[in-house]
Design a protein that fits this description.
By secondary structure, the protein is of the alpha+beta class. 39% of the residues lie in helices and 25% in strands. The protein has a domain of 104 residues.
Amino acid sequence: MNTDYMRVEDEAWAEFDALMRAEAEAEMWADQKFFRLYILDTNGNPVAEPDAATWGRWAETAERHVADDTIGSVRISTTFLAMDLNLSGTGSPALYETMIFDGEHSEHGEDQWDQWRYATKVEALAGHNQIVALVREMNNKTNWKKEGF
């Protein structure tokens, strides 16, 4: 058995595999089939960003928090996702998300409870405020669990 031949063949297959992966990734980003990327303009409005490198540089330093409240041990956080997580390809983009984090009351341990996604900042703020009001109401009850979510 010629081990040099096997090594060369393995290297060739690895190079071919890397090339195919790179081409597939480039196609995915070029077509924006996987995630459609967004940044916020100077007025805070979402704008599609077709260039992944530009998006990545923006995302490294961007302030994406929209709202953040803590009620007791419950944290409610709403952020701009910077990518459209509506993977159906139909309807409005899902660019904002509200999540609840709580170890004491969560059925999922110290993870998040649930998430809600929105197309606009106005919808996200309204949704955030509704969740805050619900958590405040439920926090006033004793022995509350994940009801009504």
